[in-house]
Automatic annotation (TrEMBL):
It comes from Aspergillus keveii. This is Cytochrome P450. It comes from the Eukaryota. Belongs to the cytochrome P450 family. The lineage of its organism: Eukaryota, Fungi, Dikarya, Ascomycota, Pezizomycotina. Residues 1-20 form the signal peptide. InterPro entries: Cyt_P450, Cyt_P450_E_grp-I, Cyt_P450_sf, Cytochrome_P450_monoxygenase. The keyword Lipid metabolism does not apply. It holds the Pfam family p450. Keywords: Signal. The keyword tRNA-binding does not apply.
Length: 513
């Protein structure tokens, strides 16, 4: 009986077409995506959602139905219509599914609740104030270089180092970049690094709500937990809750909860120790503060700690890995960047240079921005929901429809950029006559790795600071090349929300002096 209802309801809803979605072609064999979210979930399961969406748009056009109640747009104007400040559009149930009864800043769908949460952190993430966190980043970059010097020469950073170098001298740099971003966010958020780099291992304490503590591998529980949460979140709330209930004892669900428990452990420790300098954690009230704000409940302290640990480790690591990949396969760009850096940064500030100097190096920024364009960390079409009839790229969309636009399509749109799929940092440089002013204006307007509008990334300034310091140091300290076998052997990607690198096998040759 239940199965019959589960099959009949989507069919009836499809036939009724109350929101006028029939007019749009649907993805998948026989347009199956119009009937079930399983088409989207299948591709999410295998981490290849972006490929399926790209193929569907290529075959079916600029507006495609990718789930019964979800339209994907690729017209360049659609992105700002959906995500821009003016839109009467909110985050989709996809996020409220994931947030459940303990939403954090990123998955709060209620506007007032989101604004309240965002206000706590606005000051510390401003361009002026992120400098306070810079010494912590520089210290972690120094440790990363120490570790990589050991790996580059075939060694082990400690007995606990679990990432061996291969016989041919190549190694996977991805976990090292990820252990760096964990250590850095630990230090910036709770004034305590995880110490992963020193140990060459991401084992750390996770504390359950009942106080029980266990050891978990941070990278593994994070990736497994996010993957399964995103997979389930495509379902309508009732089905989502049912699936989560049925899988509550699985390692997938346990991993998501272990990740929050890492944040809980750090938060509990931080509550008993006051740092010498303010950190990100200092920004929210943990007791009634001078402004009269009441303390946040513990669930919210854990939720906000968790989102910072999530956002702070994942996209930044992916960005660094993608940059090293592209520099490795473009040795001429790598060497040009190194020359520019070593001639403009005084020897006393090399290789870990302050952001004030690096932010004056347009070519470094061009490399980072061009990598954001070609391999944007979140190319996933971030789901939003119409509140009232909304005009998206000339289409009037009914209320309560899920809409999204993938950055991966926008960033390589041939009507906006020349040689759109080629990685050419020079296109970003002012006065470069090889590229038009119109193209440069398009780069500024349409390349949005941090998205736009009220839900744009709060960590943008921090990310540029961290990535600039780390990437410049990596390029000044080492010469990078891919391991044997080319890109297919040395690099892979798996899309959760972020399109994470699965590995990046390289050889790193330390540069003396
Ligand atoms: C290269 C690095 C980064 C990229 C490309 C990036 C990208 C993004 C994107 C695309 C979103 C929107 C997500 C959505 O709508 O679901 C977002 C949101 C967010 N990011 Fe980042 N991010 C980066 C680094 C960071 C860092 C370092 C932090 C903090 C330590 C951070 C904290 C957040 C938070 C809290 C949100 C939710 C904002 C809100 O809803 O108001 N991000 N980020």
């Amino acid at each position: 009986m239940c199965a019959a209802i589960a099959l009949l309801l989507p069919l009836l809803s499809y036939l009724r077409d109350a929101k006028g979605l029939h007019q749009y072609p649907a993805a998948g064999p026989f347009g199956i995506a119009a009937l079930t979210p399983l088409w989207l979930m299948y591709h999410n399961w295998y981490g290849i959602r972006w490929k399926a969406i790209e193929k569907a748009h290529k075959q079916l056009g600029a507006v495609v139905r990718i789930s019964p109640n979800h339209l994907s747009f690729t017209d360049p104007g659609a992105y700002k219509d959906i995500y821009g400040h003016k839109a009467d559009i909110v985050k989709d149930v996809f996020y409220s599914n994931m947030g459940g009864s303990t939403p954090n800043m990123a998955d709060a769908t209620d506007r007032a609740d989101h604004a309240r949460k965002r206000k706590y952190f606005a000051a510390i993430f401003s361009a002026k104030n992120v400098g306070m966190l810079e010494p912590r980043v520089m210290q972690c970059v120094g440790k990363l270089l120490d570790c990589l010097k050991v790996k580059a020469t075939g060694g082990q950073v400690a007995e606990t180092d679990r990432f061996p170098v291969r016989e041919d001298g190549s190694f996977d740099v991805r976990p090292w970049l990820n252990m760096f971003t964990y250590d850095a966010i630990g230090s910036m958020m709770w004034s305590e690094s995880f110490g992963f780099l020193e140990r060459g291992d991401d084992l750390c304490a996770a504390e359950a709500a009942n106080g029980e503590t266990k050891q978990v591998h941070a990278m593994e529980v994070f990736q497994k937990g996010v993957w399964f949460s995103v997979f389930c979140a495509h379902l309508p709330p009732l089905a989502y809750n049912l699936l989560r209930y049925v899988t509550s004892k699985s390692t997938w669900t346990e991993s998501a909860s272990d990740f929050s428990s890492i944040a809980r452990h750090k938060a509990n420790k931080r509550l008993t120790t006051l740092p010498e300098q303010p950190d990100i954690f200092s920004q929210f009230p943990t007791e009634t503060d001078a402004k009269g704000r009441p303390p946040l409940p513990m669930w919210e302290i854990v939720a906000e700690s968790s989102v910072m640990l999530n956002a702070g480790n994942d996209t930044t690591q992916t960005t660094l890995t993608n940059n090293i990949l592209l520099l490795s396969i473009h040795p001429e760009v790598q060497s040009k960047l190194r020359t520019i850096l070593t001639t403009s940064i005084p020897a006393s500030s090399r290789p870990v240079a302050p952001y004030a100097a690096l932010s004056q190096t347009p070519y470094l920024r061009a490399v980072i921005d061009e990598t954001f364009r070609i391999l944007t960390p979140q190319r996933f079409g971030l789901p939003r929901r119409t509140v009232s009839p909304s005009l998206i790229a000339g289409h009037t969309i009914a209320p309560s429809v899920t809409i999204s636009s993938p950055l991966s399509e926008l960033h390589v749109d041939a009507s906006l950029f020349t040689k759109p799929k080629e990685w050419i940092p020079e296109r970003w440089l002012a006065d470069n006559t090889d590229f038009s002013e119109t193209e440069r204006a398009n780069l500024k307007e349409f390349v949005m790795p941090f998205t736009t509008g009220s839900r744009a990334c709060i960590g943008r300034n921090l990310a540029y600071m961290e990535v600039s310091i780390a990437l410049a140091a990596l390029v000044m300290a080492f010469e990078w090349e891919l391991g044997d076998g080319g890109i297919d052997e040395c690099f892979g990607q798996f899309e959760r929300i972020t399109s994470n690198a699965t590995k990046l096998i390289v050889r790193a040759r330390p540069i003396e002096g």
